[in-house]
């Protein structure tokens, strides 16, 4: 299915689906500054082959979904928890998308910031979540899931001015935070960067999304109250969100925890079968 723009209760979201519409719906939620195409087409197709009707979308402020307004201050976000919008607002966007698609309940899978959004969605709308899978994410507690200094600096690097600068920077950053024990496919990340740039970059939106992360509350207590079947997946070599974030998420949810040896802050093709099998196993309990 090709991309389509959906008006969802006051917000415009870009969406795409894969697989049999009669199969159980599965919503994929992507992370910071990342459009939906960072859920690789082949990964989505393999999830569809595993028996899901797969939905991916651009969060607000990225790609072809609606770009927001308001200036973000990262110090204000961290110290005063003040931001143009919250992770809860992003979670509500996901709910509005499901409403527009006529989906009452879905399996929800989020990665990185998308994992935070997925957790918030489950807290706000527990009856709409069939299962929750949180990948390379954390609880919002400020003593877990901390980035390495080098990874943190990479996230705060000045935005590139040209297409080629963006491609070069994204490839470099992807290699820095990615899985060093797996082969780095530079051509793949270059093509992803080119496609991302061509779909539209929103540097101010990146800071608004980052402010939403920095201003987020600790979700631990609310996660403990959930009774949603859950799975947490995290790499043991993640430099951007330390695996302590994944451990804390699993403890709070009472979830299965799959620590993937050598995986960084990405989903290498080699681990796709393991991730998809985990999602399917959770869904068929």
UniProtKB/TrEMBL annotation:
Keywords: Hydrolase. Residues 24-261 form the AB hydrolase-1 domain. GO terms for biological process: glycerolipid catabolic process. It comes from the Bacteria. Signal peptide: none annotated. One of its GO terms (molecular function) is triacylglycerol lipase activity. SUPFAM superfamilies: alpha/beta-Hydrolases. The keyword Hydrolase applies. It holds the Pfam family Abhydrolase_1. This is Alpha/beta hydrolase.
């Amino acid at each position: 299915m090709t991309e389509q723009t959906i008006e969802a209760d006051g917000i415009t979201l870009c969406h795409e689906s894969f697989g049999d519409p009669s199969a159980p719906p599965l919503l994929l939620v992507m992370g910071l500054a990342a459009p939906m195409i960072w859920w690789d087409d082949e990964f989505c197709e393999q999830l569809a082959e595993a028996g899901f009707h797969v939905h991916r979308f651009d969060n607000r402020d990225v790609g072809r979904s609606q770009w927001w307004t308001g200036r973000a201050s990262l110090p204000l976000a961290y110290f005063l928890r003040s931001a143009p919008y919250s992770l809860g607002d992003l979670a509500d966007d996901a709910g509005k998308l499901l409403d527009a698609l006529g989906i009452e309940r879905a399996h929800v899978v989020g990665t990185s910031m998308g994992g935070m959004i997925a957790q918030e969605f489950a807290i706000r709308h527990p009856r709409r979540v069939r299962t929750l899978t949180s990948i390379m994410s954390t609880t919002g507690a400020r003593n877990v899931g901390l980035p390495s200094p080098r990874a943190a600096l990479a996230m705060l690097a000045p935005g590139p001015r040209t297409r080629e600068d963006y491609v070069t920077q994204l490839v470099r950053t992807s290699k820095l935070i990615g899985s060093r024990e797996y082969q780095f496919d530079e051509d793949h990340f270059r093509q992803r960067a080119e496609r991302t740039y061509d779909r539209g970059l929103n540097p101010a939106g990146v800071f608004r999304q980052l402010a939403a992360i920095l201003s987020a509350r600790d979700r631990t207590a609310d996660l403990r109250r959930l009774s949603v079947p859950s799975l947490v997946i995290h790499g043991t070599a993640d430099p951007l969100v330390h695996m302590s974030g994944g451990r804390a998420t699993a403890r709070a949810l009472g979830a299965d925890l799959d620590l993937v040896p050598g995986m960084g802050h990405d989903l290498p093709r080699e681990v796709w079968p393991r991730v998809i099998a985990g999602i399917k196993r959770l869904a068929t309990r």
